[in-house]
Specification:
418 residues; alpha+beta; six-stranded antiparallel beta sheet
């Protein structure tokens, strides 16, 4: 073996001598050979480290491979390697302790895409993103929906909303662009030579707001979501109650799942004085800050919340509480104030990951705090009574002869005393 090695090095020395017309001693060839091999090994090692993110990530990857190899060699039953990898990935995301983040295998992600596409959300269409950059393909149109009445058909590729290019948007972002206009008319643009189409949602728009005057002279405003048009409807309702002589406001956000950031921003701007309302923050601390002007409503206020108060509705309650502008009454909320993004992986699987969070003007992360804790904790013994919109005949003391909605009655009593 040693003789073979010497012959190899001698051959290399003769090769370089012939090429460069110089005599090279065997030991220099050996040194050069070792340096070249060492350099190649070092380059390969550092390339691997960079590919996996550094030494710590490399060590984690090697630990995973070691565990997998031990299982393959020693586990008594046959091992499904793909299933094992999916469980490992799901466990990694689960380790974030974020209930809103999750891992989807390639099959689960395909099912998610199809079910998400076929929900007939928004204007009555189901659509899928065209990964080639051509927009969003309409794969279904709900009969008698605003989309059907406007003339949308399957096979069309939506590329813009009111001249806003959406071809680079995610499916969630494209839907948000449409949702934010669903209380009126807007124009959809299409690729492949299709002419723009105006969609009219005003005829089927249903207000998210119910309002009435209580006998306690408090105005009751129930907001069932913060989708398009909700803030203006709530503002109009409050203005009407003020014209009727309301001396206090009870804002009901129970079972409100949230909606659009712009809607809750508009509503809070109407209620609160000048200052920072809230911000949406990413993992690097970059903040998109929302501020209020100087106009405000100065009346005693009580906001009703419960475990079904989510996202932008929680944000609304938290900001009013932080400004000391309203008493929060009811049950603690859940803390679902993080925003999610679906990220597709190279093997067709996907991560639905929390990539942003809402924080109040004072920098409080509602999700990290576990939700909004009411100033006054009150429960309804009859859950079906929550959100009652009839029969709340409050007397001047704030008590009621009719209605099992104990939280609402407690709010009216509180407001009457204030």
């Amino acid at each position: 073996m040693q003789s073979l090695g010497n012959r190899l090095l001698s051959t290399i020395a003769q090769f370089f001598s012939a090429i460069f017309n110089i005599r090279i001693k065997l030991k220099f060839v050996l040194i050069a050979f070792i340096l070249i091999i060492s350099g190649a090994v070092a380059y390969t090692y550092y390339t691997m480290l960079n590919n996996v993110g550094g030494k710590e990530d490399y060590a984690e990857a090697m630990r995973y491979i070691e565990i997998k190899d031990v299982i393959d060699e020693n586990f008594i039953d046959a091992v499904d390697r793909k299933s094992l990898g999916d469980y490992a990935a799901a466990a990694m995301v689960s380790g974030l302790n974020d209930p809103w983040s999750k891992y989807m295998s390639s099959d689960e992600y395909k099912t998610y895409q199809l079910s998400s596409a076929n929900e007939y959300q928004d204007i009555g269409i189901s659509m899928l993103k065209d990964e080639s950059g051509g927009g969003f393909q309409v794969i279904g149109v709900n009969p008698a929906s605003p989309a059907a009445l406007a003339g949308l058909t399957t096979g069309m590729y939506i590329t813009s909303v009111d001249d806003e290019d959406i071809t680079k948007y995610t499916l969630e972002e494209a839907r948000t662009a449409i949702r934010s206009r669903m209380n009126g008319k807007f124009t959809l643009g299409f690729g492949r030579g299709q002419s723009p189409i105006e969609v009219d949602c005003s005829a089927v728009y249903t207000s998210a707001v119910n309002a009435r005057m209580e006998k306690t002279e408090a105005g009751y405003v129930q907001i069932s979501n913060f989708e398009a048009g909700s803030s203006q409807d709530a503002i109009n309702a409050i203005e009407d109650l003020l014209n009727q002589g309301a001396i206090a406001l009870c804002i009901d956000l129970r079972n409100n799942p949230g909606g659009l950031r712009g809607e809750v921003a508009s509503f809070l701007d109407y209620l609160l004085p000048n200052g920072v309302l809230f911000a949406e923050m990413d993992k690097n601390g970059k903040q998109d800050v929302v501020q209020s002007d100087g106009m405000c409503i100065q009346l005693p206020m009580c906001v009703l919340v419960n475990a079904g108060t989510f996202a932008e509705a929680e944000l609304c309650a938290a900001v009013l509480q932080e400004y000391n502008w309203a008493t929060i009454l009811g049950e603690a909320t859940t803390g679902k104030t993080r925003t999610q993004e679906t990220i597709t992986l190279s093997d067709g699987s996907a991560l639905q990951l929390s990539t942003g969070t809402y924080i109040t003007g004072n920098g409080n992360d509602i999700s990290r705090n576990g939700g909004v804790v009411p100033d006054v904790i009150t429960y309804n013994s009859d859950a079906s009574a929550t959100g009652t919109t009839q029969g709340t005949t409050g007397e001047s003391t704030g008590t009621a002869s009719v209605s099992a909605d104990q939280q609402l009655m407690a709010a009216l009593t509180l407001l009457s005393k204030s």
